[in-house]
Amino acid sequence: MPHLTKELIERLPPPAKGYRLTYDDDATTPGFGIRVTATGVRSFILTYRTKTGRQSRATIGRFGPAPLLSVAAARREARDMLAAIRGGADPVVDARKARDEATQKRAEERGAKTVADLCDDYVENHLPDKRPASAEDDRRMIRDHIKPHLGNMKARDIRKDDINRLLRKIRDDGKPVRANRVRSLLSTIFNREVGESVDHNPVKGAIKNREEGRKRYVTREELPRLLAAIAAHRNKTAGAILRLLLYTGARKGETCAAKWSDFDLDAGLWIKPGSTTKQKTEHRANLPPGAVAMLRGLPRVSEYVFPSPRRPGQPFRELKKPWAEICEAAEIEDLRIHDLRHTVASLLADAGYGLGDIGAILGHASQATTERYRHIFKERERAAADSVGSIIDSAAGKPSLTLIDGGA
Questions:
Q1: pTM reported for the whole predicted model
Q2: Residue 166: which of 188, 181, 122, 211 has the closest Cα?
Q3: Whole-number Å distance between alpha carbons of 309 and 237
Q4: What pLDDT digit, counting tens, does each position of 377-396 carry?
Q5: I need a surface site. Which of 16, 64, 92, 388 has the fewest CB within 10 A?
Q6: At the topology level of CATH, where does 6-109 sit?
Q7: Is the peptide bond before 288 cis (omega within 30 degrees of 0)?
Q8: What Cα–Cα distance (Å) separates residue 149 from each residue in 124, 158, 241?
Q9: Is the Cβ–Cβ distance between 351 and 210 less than 8 Å?
Q10: Phi, psi for residue 210 in degrees, rounded to 5
Q11: Contact status, residue 344 vs residue 246, Cβ threshold 8 Å
């Protein structure tokens, strides 16, 4: 038997298949050796007999530079193992027992997770990849619905009946659509844990409320009142955002997050980056003349077109209160900000534009057919955008573009 050294081990050729054992000649560590596999992996081993006479072989560790094992370190480990064996230990059995205990402990820890723990994992590891508005909505649903009703329950104990009780409560509070959104979020959270904290997704088969597409939009009779209320409101930043929504049919989130660098006012273009759009792709939107004129009249005091007056360096987001006051002043009920997007679609349809043009103006994600004929629709998109601008300007009676901020 050779005396194992670093140089000798490095020169040992791998076998054609399987592995080859080479034992050390040190009498103080009988059974100590090196195993070389056909792939060239070198690991220290110890062949020994237990007190009952059964022969076994334990792997000490991989050969190599730190953090792997040197010959000297492996030989010391072999001496310690032999001493333990003389005392009745069995390294192979003991290692297997330790692995089983660690596996059991991990299983218990996973099984001990509560729904609140799952929600926290989701917030930490999944929400950073979502759009800010969607992430904030998920946080609200977790805070207002999921944690208060299911948070303290063990995730593995949750059943479909528990999910249904929560969804019925939200529905019976007059929020059937919200119940569906909570259901979808819960399903996502549990799906991420199947095979870990839970064996199956308890949301599968839970109740789902029927949803009808919302048809609310600003009527031709309401539009002048709405624009007059926007022009009269003290918060001119909120007013400018709402007018841009009416001019373009854009989404609230992408409008609030708009930066001056996104606009080419000379060309009448708003180039929305994929980071702000729902479809996560760039969308080039034509701006009608009224929108261009309004934007030129805004002060450039930040990289954001609509900066927050309360949080320096952040976009404006305080629309809830101004919107409620504007709707009250205009005597308009049951109108959401997102309904302005429906309004633009309605105005375009009334003006004779087809679904392809409307989809292109609004930046819908599923417009494969429209994209095939993009070159045909270019001029019609420009005409469509200008048409909306003319309608808005006419209904507004060309209100003043002086923009002096008031409070939110």
A1: 0.49
A2: 181
A3: 9
A4: 455 567 777 777 787 888 87
A5: 16
A6: Double Stranded RNA Binding Domain (3.30.160)
A7: no
A8: 21, 12, 37
A9: no
A10: -70, 135
A11: yes
